[in-house]
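Recall the central idea of this unit: under ordinary conditions, the amino acid sequence of a chain determines the structure it adopts. In this exercise we apply that idea directly, starting from the sequence alone.
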Amino acid sequence: MIRKIAGPRTIANVFLRYVCLLAGGALLWMLVLFGIFMVLEAAGEVLPANYAELWLNEAEEELKVAPEITGEMIPPGCSFGVFGGDGSWLYGTISAGERKTAWEHYEERMVYTNGHGYYRFVERDAGEVCIVNYEITMLYRNPFFRKWIPRADVLLVILYVVLFLLHTAVVSRSFGKYMQNRIGVLNEVTGEIRKQNLEFEKGHSDIREVEEVLDSLYQMKEALKDSLYRQWDLEKSREEQIAALAHDIKTPLTVIRGNAELLAEGDLAAEEKEYSRDILQGVEIMEGYLGMLHEILLADRREKRLIPCEELAEKMEEQARLLASARKCTVFFSREELRGEIQGIEIEMIRAFQNIVSNGLDYSPPGKGIRIHFCNREEAEKVYLAAAVMDEGPGFSEEDLKYAAERFYRGDKSRSSKVHYGIGLHTARQFAERQGGCLVIENGERGGGRVTLYIRQLSLQ
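Accordingly, the structure predicted from this sequence is:
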């Protein structure tokens, strides 16, 4: 991380500095190019813009009296034509398409052309007229350069634009690297917080605004750290209290069970035997509650692993068969082709599924069974393994649909059970939401209840 230095800058100051570098560079390149062309012009390699005019001024008398005008008498880069007194073409380098235009300009004494420079008219002693087409532009002395390289003034502009763009790219890259290095400390801090590593040292930046954000993040980190410690202490205390409570309850339950079993072995009246059975059944229900509490305490202590959907469905089917066999119920399975893998705690997924199956078996009428269907589902660009359990009971009431997954909800009389603790569907929903899925409770199309466990997958591959 960047260490704090004296005199932190503001982003405005840093930006102004790079703007000055950009403007200074633009001015510097302009001066450099101008200097280079001044040197070339002084050396005679680049001709001044009015070079053709100066040439013609000096050569005008020679053009008037010369027996014949040749190309050497004309300035470089210019074209000429010699016409008779009646406008007939005699010779020269002006193209055939421009000869008529040139003569018309001579007759009208119009020196400006239509975008092709200027005309210079020289009336020769022999009664002929020499018309020279020239431009006010910087030319090269070297003929090769005149032919293949843009005009000196155009080249100056092109070079300046290219150098300015390169200079802008360099300054922009430098500014980006500077800001990235200074702001990078924010990524480091937020990365540590994202990884829940709250033991890192406070970072610093030499930019005032970044330093202020770092101070805020550090304060947030300290507050989050304190909050997590308090939450951890609270969870630890809660677990210890639940474990102590479960242990305290287990001892008298053992005594009650033992005494009830001893009484049942004696010679009791029919009414007394019924009382003894009720006591044992109550003890069994209480032991079931203790088992649920034990499962809650162990839920977050197991390691996650990758499990193929096909393998998980097979294990779920096996558990469903065992539950249905113990209840002397029938279970019908259907399964689509299952693909992909799930990352999670296997025993937790199976336990959540068992709670749903057990709920369906509790509410299926005697002699009836349940149906279980497995498939892959894609919803909102997410992939799930869907395990649906359908019973043939009375279905869910409006109140059940709203509260069936709430902790300790027992339902109305139509869906009540002496061995139903009101925690199974709640535990299943907690697992599904913690794993990124959900629990859907609804009534089937042909009656009965339908509970679907959606378990989030990594992908369908």
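The radius of gyration is 48 Å.
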